[in-house]
Write a structure and sequence with these properties.
The structure is a homodimer of 467-residue chains.
Chain A: H1 4-14, E1 19-20, H2 23-28, E2 42-44, H3 49-62, E3 66-69, E4 86-89, E5 96-100, E6 105-108, H4 114-122, E7 126-127, H5 140-146, H6 153-156, E8 163-169, E9 175-179, H7 190-194, E10 203-210, E11 212-213, E12 217-225, H8 228-240, E13 247-252, H9 253-262, E14 273-281, H10 286-299, E15 304-308, H11 311-330, E16 334-341, H12 347-361, E17 364-370, E18 375-382, H13 387-406, H14 425-428, H15 431-444
């Protein structure tokens, strides 16, 4: 726990009731959706940029590490405080400050839940494109920190492509405005640098988002396959045919079974893979595209192909997809979420290798893919109470990362590096590359207090942290 | 000129005929399309990443500044060597190394001309979206260094959104690979940081580009207006109606006259503004959208509205737009290209103020706008032989930057800051913001040899350079 002096200084900023130090409270903030765990010394709930700035200044003055936290849905440990210190929970900063319809921009606070924003926008015929599967819960602040993806990022790009301005509290406590409503700011792209920096360069307290008109229509094509590879190959052919669906998602049998068991929606579970193809665009254009996608599915021997044209049908199928993560978690006391990416054309080959890894380590892996982006989520199921089982899961996860990195891919698609994967950075980057990133980090955070232990591996080759 | 020892060292890397030191040769590399001028000490033409690396190492060893150069079409002085030193011309590195149709990626060298790449891609039904007006001449290396835009960036985003990997020679001469074909790389977004860094962080010698399918169809709506404001207001209404055209371009009367005088294409020159609306998308969707755009133009009292549906008609209108810059240059011995950006909704208001600036300074300004992005190109015509006239142009340009910055805009849309605008950075950034950017630059370039004098203003408040 933080000492009395620090506690009083924090209380002076946010008021006594917004500083939590009771063990029961601290426990609630000691985990996220990853395997990382770490109990903070205090949790502070500021209400404004000004308060965040003053809280960070208290931390800087006392040499206390800090991490910002939204809904805690992070899948790589990014929002867990590894070294004692202060969790800055931004849940009270949850207002949509402005929806500028004419300029297609929204200005929001970090604690706004993604889906709440979408609902506020849809009345204006607009959307914020990034739609992580966690969107019912996760906040825009977290989406920005992790450069979140989501099914629709295939067509519309990840969070990075939809943030044009940030108000940022630097690790010194200073407040900076980066970018804004108009155009690309001159000089270095600091907005882009902050997006996805996982809380290691500072805390974004206000974000200016790029909006897009909602598509006039959407349709969904659902195909069932007897092999994962056939589903993967179908994805490649659809793209090669020059189509750019809004989403191309694959779920494997283990995931289908989990979804049906938890949220019955009539999905068949006797197939090895389901491919969801969402198409969107102007009225009158989708029937032909859906037909072309269906033909390609049949060429690859899909067992059945169904086209969903009504909003109800689409919603049913999408909600199954969005529930997949939670449903999968019910299959097993715990799971290790592997989030790797490979060039789209190597999906089928990588899937074959992954099945070998599964057998070799005796683990069950439920697979959900943003297949159009080559982003493979392998949920490795394990029993948290069995240390041997966890080791097997970790070994399988490490092999998957090596496999994907070796195939020209990378170790994260949209979940970040966080606390779980800094060591895997060495699969992608040389020691010099990592050192360059460290220097860059030190420009913003010379004291090393902003979310330490995350993203970059330790110099000695050992990951620190108490996870 | 560089001394003999340096010259020999450079010749050892690239061969004698690829090191130019004759005054006549140096003169050719002493300018670009901006007002900046500076004669290099030598011009070196390397043929590979390896050679660029060794050339930069020679520069680093001897403390000689260097700048990479493509076609020299830069509009803010980015490719001019301000302090003697070495121009590294990348024109020999002009190969398209790979077109990976299935993954929709291209790997190219920096000297590839934008339009040559487009032509190589179109056979595969693909495109590289950034299409600067200079695309017939300008190179991908320059497009990346400047984060180039172009008419189609309204719908598809600027260069930043289409570069996924870079091979970079750092100012130390070390070679780094950033990003790659698959997904967003983990850690900090160094690819994004390099794109648009105007040669101040190193030299990109190979780029992995994101491609997109060519649209199935395109149509163009051309409307003539009696006031610039009406054209600007039309743009706002089209966007507010939820449409996202591929391009929304405005040219004013001065520009129209210039284009007609140089490249007669039947444009009317008795109107104050022409608005070009390009729509693209799947077959069968454009007639209705074009009709809606035409109605909006008529609501704003367009004098005439024409819809161009054939490729020939579109090409004629676009080539007029693309020629506008060159044609405008013929109106006057020289012009100062002002490239500012404002929030789209403030275009009409800013245009009114610009007309006042024109009258106040007694200058003629030919205006071409990427209006959908709020990116205003004001070409201020002046006589280079008349120092007083140049001063008037500079004063008008400074006022336009202040006007746009005050309206929530910024000082560059797509031409970069270069040598012309570092001092204007102070309109956008505080001294602390600029200092943070300087520190970031020093991480990559501690010796300050990579394109010095560009982008950031000098600490003392005086822009250096011999321009």
């Amino acid at each position: 726990m933080v000492d009395k002096k620090v506690r009083r200084a924090l209380e002076k900023v946010v008021g006594r009731k917004n500083v939590l130090t009771e063990p029961a409270d601290l426990l609630l903030y000691s985990y996220d959706s990853s395997t990382a765990r770490g109990q903070p010394g205090a949790v502070v709930l500021p209400a404004s940029t000004e308060e965040v700035s003053r809280v960070v200044k208290v931390c800087a003055r006392h040499g206390i590490p800090f991490v910002a936290r939204g809904a805690g849905t992070n899948l790589s440990g990014g929002s867990v405080m590894l070294r004692g210190g202060v969790v800055i929970a931004l849940t009270r900063m949850n207002r949509v400050l402005e929806i500028d319809v004419a300029n297609q921009r929204a200005v929001v606070q970090p604690g706004v839940v993604n889906l709440d924003l979408q609902q506020a926008l849809s009345g204006h015929g607009l959307q914020f494109c990034p739609d992580p599967a966690s969107q019912k819960v996760s906040t825009i602040g977290g989406n920005v920190a992790e450069n979140a993806g989501g099914p629709h990022c295939l067509k519309y790009g990840v969070t990075l492509n939809h943030v044009v301005g940030l108000t940022v509290v630097l690790p010194s406590g200073e407040v900076r405005r980066l970018g804004g409503k108009a155009g690309t700011p001159p000089g270095y792209d600091l907005v882009g640098l902050f997006v996805g920096s996982e809380g290691t360069l500072g805390i974004a307290t206000e974000m200016v988002l790029r909006l897009r008109p909602l598509p006039e229509e959407a349709q969904i094509v659902v195909a069932l396959f007897d092999t994962l590879e056939a589903a993967g190959e179908t994805v490649s052919r659809i793209i090669a045919a020059g189509m750019l669906p809004a989403a191309l998602e694959i779920m494997d049998r283990a995931t289908l079974e989990a979804v049906e068991a938890s949220f019955p929606s009539g999905l068949r579970t006797d197939v090895e893979a389901i491919l969801l193809i969402e198409l969107d665009g102007p009225k009158g254009t989708l029937d032909r595209q859906a037909g072309r996608c269906a033909s390609i599915c049949r060429e690859l021997n899909a067992r059945s192909v169904e086209i969903g044209r009504t909003p109800e049908e689409r919603e049913r199928l999408w909600s199954a997809r969005r529930s997949a993560f939670g449903a999968t978690a019910r299959l097993s006391p715990a799971m290790l979420v592997n989030d790797a990416t490979v060039p789209r054309t190597r999906i089928a080959e990588v899937l074959r290798e992954m099945q070998k890894i599964e057998r070799r380590h005796g683990v069950r892996i439920a697979k959900i893919f943003h297949a159009g982006d080559g982003n493979l989520h392998s949920n490795i199921l394990f029993n948290r109470d069995d240390p041997e089982d966890f080791k097997r899961a970790e070994a399988a996860s490490a092999e998957i990362f090596r496999l994907c990195a070796g195939a020209g891919g990378t170790i994260t698609g949209e979940h970040g590096v966080g606390a779980e994967k800094p060591e895997y950075m060495r699969l992608i980057y040389s020691a010099e590359d990592i050192e360059a990133q460290r220097k860059l980090r030190e420009v913003f955070d010379p004291l090393g207090l902003a979310n330490p232990g995350k993203v970059l591996p330790e110099r000695a080759g050992v990951t620190e942290g108490d996870a």
